[in-house]
């Protein structure tokens, strides 16, 4: 039990140091980032913890009389169940992909109350495409500049007209059907649903637009 607590204590101390490191300016150029030391530490921590916990289980097995009351070891082990980590949303640099990226980044990073603005700004820079947005990358990593950088990206990439035009072109490019094959019709309906959902997210759908889609798809159906 004491060893598990010591391992937990070391991990907590590391997490504190890790947060300081990733918020340091120039972090991405350090060996810590390049050699993925954080990943190595996490793997080593989990391996060590599991080995010690298993040793505790073998040395102090749960007897029938104590089965009804969880032991301290089992309680700690249960508390350390690790859920899969979500990857940082990455932006492609294409305006068409902006709505999906924006929603993911907003929910996972921007609205994450455990992060401060310096950390959010760090993740914002990390999520940008390589070779793009040099002005954002060169902004000093400070809490005050996070909002400025985020607003700049929104103004730059949040262009509903481009998203709508892209999905409208997808409908234009749907092949005409020569025969009423269920698979082909389902594929067409699926493409329409994707386009409609995308247009709804940018408030580009209207009753007139629905009529236009219906008319256009009718022209794609078999003549006989």
UniProtKB/TrEMBL annotation:
Pfam families: DUF1759 (PF03564). This is Uncharacterized protein isoform X2. It comes from Drosophila suzukii. The gene is LOC118878648.
């Amino acid at each position: 039990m004491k060893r598990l607590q010591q391992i937990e204590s070391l991990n907590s101390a590391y997490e504190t140091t890790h947060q300081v490191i990733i918020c340091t300016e120039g972090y991405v150029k350090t060996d810590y980032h390049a050699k993925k030391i954080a990943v190595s530490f996490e793997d080593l921590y989990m391996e060590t913890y599991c080995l010690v916990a298993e040793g505790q289980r073998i040395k102090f097995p749960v007897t029938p009389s104590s089965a009804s009351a969880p032991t301290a070891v089992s309680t700690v082990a249960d508390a350390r169940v690790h859920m899969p980590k979500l990857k940082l949303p990455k932006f492609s640099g294409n305006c068409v992909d902006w709505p999906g990226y924006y929603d993911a980044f907003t929910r996972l990073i921007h609205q994450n109350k455990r992060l401060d603005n310096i950390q959010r700004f760090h993740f914002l820079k990390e999520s940008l495409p390589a070779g793009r947005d040099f002005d954002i990358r060169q902004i000093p990593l400070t809490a005050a500049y996070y909002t400025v950088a985020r607003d700049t990206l929104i103004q730059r990439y949040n262009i509903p007209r481009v998203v709508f035009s892209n999905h409208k072109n997808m409908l234009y490019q749907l092949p005409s059907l020569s025969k009423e094959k269920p698979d082909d019709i389902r594929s067409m309906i699926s493409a329409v649903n994707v386009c409609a959902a995308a247009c709804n997210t940018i408030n580009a759908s209207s009753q007139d637009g629905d009529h236009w889609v219906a008319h256009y798809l009718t022209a794609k159906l078999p003549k006989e």
